[in-house]
Amino acid sequence: MGPMKKIPGQRSPVECARALDQALEAQRARTALVRAIKNGEVDCVQALERAARDALAGDMLAKDFLLALPGVGPAQTAKLMTKLGLSDTRRLRSLAPVQRELIGAAVRS
């Protein structure tokens, strides 16, 4: 019997551990950003700018971002998402510049 062939898509235990570490790091970064937004350390515009250039912040769901904003609850989030035509699975990195501006304007008003 020859050497075992690796099945496509199958990861070694080392690769699995590395992927898990990367996922945990990404989740911690998003959690820290949400906490900073909720505490007022980062405002809406700063967070959107960061999401445009930072892959970890850009992976945050637009819905979660809006919920993190002070004074924005689930009802207002749903209303904004509908108004902007955003699905619940839309990520910040995929927002168009116009959509970012509209979110900023809606939150400021």
Description:
It is a single chain. The chain has 109 residues and is mainly α. The chain has one domain: Helicase, Ruva Protein, domain 3, CATH 1.10.8.50. It is built from six helices and no strands. Helix 4 (62-68) packs across helix 5. The longest helix has 26 residues, at 13-38. The protein is elongated, with a radius of gyration of 18 Å. The termini are far apart. The mean pLDDT is 89.
Write the layout of secondary structure elements.
Blueprint: H1 13-38, H2 44-53, H3 55-58, H4 62-68, H5 74-84, H6 97-108
Helix pairs in contact: 4-5
Observed structural traits:
109 residues, 64% helix, mainly alpha, Helicase, Ruva Protein, domain 3, elongated
